[in-house]
């Protein structure tokens, strides 16, 4: 069985960045430092991730740009599509990220403030480079509001209207994050993803809520997502194997990583952390068409020779 889009279903780890660190929160809040983004990204690449998404979660708030160097380093060793977002305000911001090695950019705040920016960006770089990130907050039955600034600012924009407008202006893909589900491990917002997937002609990436492999299958079969993005379920599996001794004191709440074993045990009570290979095997066994990890590993092996 093919994925619900025209192409194979993609598995895309999401790496939220604050300063130099990889962070993770719940409902986009309470960010905890997990380690160095490049360590996680490298592991996901060799495990068979189809793409990676980097989001600087405080770039819009502080008006700074930390992603360029992170993307530049990643592009030297990781040869799958990279999407970068956070604090993108101008055509030149996009150009710099693409020059650094990103294949696509994810835009939220600047697009909502000035929708024509989508058309301008698509005209210069092509729609295939422009991903519109939508942070959806449930308001009432069938109603969601699009928020900006990593879920901090209200817009009064209806998510479904905004999704259709963004696509009509030239967005080539939509990244839909459920704020209510994000970081909870309770599964994706199937109704939200389904309504958007069925109303736009471009690929939809589902994000927010994955806690076990079954959640990937649900959002593909019921939500008709073209790709699944996740953080916690991959990060906490990867964290056990990295065990970096480096101190992450530059920025953010480092208490979680310093607690180490106890913190991971706590997270496992509400998550079933998994690696990408296992997730893909589960989906493949369930009839969902995914890129073969074994074949991908042969490519990696050839690159190292």
Describe this structure in words.
The structure is a single chain. The protein has a single domain, classed as Aldolase class I (TIM Barrel), CATH 3.20.20. Helices cover 41% and strands 24% of the residues. The chain contains 14 helices and 12 strands. An 8-stranded parallel barrel has the order 1-4-5-6-7-10-11-12, surrounded by 8 helices. Helix 1 packs parallel to helix 3 (67-77), helix 3 packs parallel to helix 4 (91-100) and helix 9 crosses helix 13. The longest helix has 12 residues, at 293-304. The model is unreliable at 1-6 and 244-254 (pLDDT under 50).
Question: TL;DR of this structure?
Answer:
The protein is of the alpha/beta class and 305 residues long. It has helices spanning 37-47, 59-62, 67-77, 91-100, 109-113, 116-125, 159-169, 190-197, 213-221, 232-242, 255-259, 261-268, 276-285, 293-304, and strands spanning 10-18, 21-26, 29-36, 52-56, 82-85, 104-107, 130-140, 143-148, 153-158, 173-178, 204-207, 227-230.
- Overall mean pLDDT stands at 85
| Percentage of residues in DSSP E strands | 15-25%
Q: SS-based structural class? A: alpha/beta
Q: In the CATH classification, which architecture applies?
A: Alpha-Beta Barrel
Order of helices and strands: EEEHEHHEHEHHEEEHEHEHEHHHHH
Rounded to the nearest angstrom, the radius of gyration is 18 Å
CATH superfamily: Aldolase class I
Helical content stands at: 40-55%
Instruction: Report the CATH topology name.
Output: TIM Barrel
Major β-sheet, in short?
A: 8 strands, parallel, barrel
Q: What spatial order of strands do you see in the largest sheet?
A: 1-4-5-6-7-10-11-12
Give the total of domains. 1
Low-confidence segments: 1-6, 244-254
What's the total helix number?
Answer: 14
Tell me the overall shape.
globular
Question: What's the β-strand tally?
Answer: 12
Distance between the termini: 35 Å
């Amino acid at each position: 069985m093919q994925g619900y889009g025209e192409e194979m279903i993609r598995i895309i780890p999401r790496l939220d960045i604050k300063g130099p660190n990889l962070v993770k929160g719940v409902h986009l809040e309470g960010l905890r430092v997990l380690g160095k983004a490049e360590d996680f990204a490298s592991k996901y690449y060799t495990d068979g991730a189809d793409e990676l998404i980097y989001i600087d979660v405080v770039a819009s708030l502080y008006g700074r740009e930390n992603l360029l160097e992170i993307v530049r380093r990643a592009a030297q060793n990781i040869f799958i599509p990279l999407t970068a977002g956070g604090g993108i305000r101008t055509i030149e911001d996009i150009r710099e990220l693409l020059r650094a090695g990103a294949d696509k950019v994810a835009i939220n705040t600047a697009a909502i403030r000035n929708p024509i920016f989508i058309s301008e960006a698509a005209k210069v770089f092509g729609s295939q480079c422009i991903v519109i990130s939508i942070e959806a907050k449930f308001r009432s039955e069938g109603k969601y509001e699009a928020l900006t600034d990593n879920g901090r600012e209200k817009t009064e924009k209806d998510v479904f209207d905004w999704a259709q407008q963004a696509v009509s202006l030239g967005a080539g893909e939509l990244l839909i994050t459920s704020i209510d589900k994000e970081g909870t491990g309770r599964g994706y917002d199937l109704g939200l993803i389904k309504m958007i997937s069925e109303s736009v002609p471009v690929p939809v990436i589902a994000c927010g809520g994955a806690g076990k492999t079954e959640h990937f299958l649900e959002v593909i079969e019921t939500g008709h997502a073209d790709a699944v993005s996740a953080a916690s379920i991959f990060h906490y599996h990867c964290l056990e194997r990295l065990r970096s001794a480096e101190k992450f004191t530059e920025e953010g709440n480092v208490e979680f990583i310093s607690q180490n074993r106890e913190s991971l045990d706590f997270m496992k009570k509400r998550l079933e952390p998994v690696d990408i290979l296992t997730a893909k095997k589960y989906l493949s066994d369930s009839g969902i068409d995914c890129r073969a990890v074994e074949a991908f590993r042969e490519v990696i092996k050839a690159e190292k020779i």
